[in-house]
Amino acid sequence: MFILRHSHRLPARRFSTQPAAVKLSHEIHSPSPKSAVNARDGKAERAPLLVLHGLFGSKQNWRSVSKQLSNKINTQIVAIDLRNHGDSPHHMLHDYHAMAADVFHLADSLGIDAFSVMGHSMGGKTAMHMALENSDRIQGLICVDMSPISLNLTSLFSDYIVTMREVEAAGVKTHQQADAIMAKTIPELPIRQFISTNLKFKEGSDVLSFRVNLDALEASFTRHEGREGIAGFPLREKGLTYDGPALFVRGLKSGYVPDSSIPGIRRLFPQSEIVGIEGAGHWVHSEKPNEFMKVVQDWTERKL
Asked: Which parts of the sequence belong to the AB hydrolase-1 domain (predicted)?
C-alpha cells in the first residue's frame, strides 16, 4: 500500500537537537472503495491521519477504531507503535522529543509530508509536541484525554511496573496466572486486561513476558540530562503555539483534562475545541467508541 506524498509545505520549525530515530512498527488502514463515493467534491485530498497510543498501549488497541474511522472520514489512517511499545524497537531514551522524532521519521519514510495526528494519553502529549515544534507539517491535531500539564502519575504507573516485574519473575505460562498476580495490587479488571495485551511468548519460550521496555519506561518518569519526564510537558513554557485546527476529547469521568487545564490548552492551541463525552473515563475510544468516532468525524468534516 502506497501513500501519496502530500507536498503542501511551509518553512519548517525543526527540532534543535534531533535524537536518533527508531524504525516504528505500524499498520495502514485505507478507506474502502465504497467510502470514496462520499468524498468531498471539489476539495483537496484530506491528509493521512497518524494515530499514537498511550503508555503500555499499542497500535493493536486502535485497530478497530482505525478501520471504522478510516471509512467514516474517507482518510488513510496509520496506526503506530511508539518506541518501547508493541512491535517497535526498544531504546533507553524515552521522552516526547524522541517519540516525536520517531513519528516524523516514519512519516518521511512513507512519503508523507503533511498529515494530521491523533494521540491518546502519552500519545496525546507526543502529538501536541509534534504540533508545537513542527506546526507546518501538522494539518490537524486530535488529543484524546490528555492536556499539556504535569500530572502526578509517577507513583501509580511505577506501581504498575513493579507488578509487571512480579509477573515476569513468576515465570507465568497463562494469562490467568498473570491476572491472579496483578489482581493483588491492581483491583480494576479493565486495567489488568489492558496491561495483559502486552504479555507475549518470546520465540522459543513457553513463559510469558511483557513486550514493553519496562526499564526504559520506569526511567522515563524522572528528569534525565535536562529532559523532563513523561509525566510533565516540556514545551508549555517555551512560547510556542499551534494555530491549526485542534480537537481535545476528554472523558468526563477522567481527571486527565481538568477544567484548570483549559486556559493552558487555549493558550497553546488557540483554535482548539474541547468536547467531553459523558460516561467515559481515560480510555474514551474503547469505552465509548461510537460517541468518540462521531465527535471525531463531525470535527474532521468541518475542519480538515
From this structure: 48-289
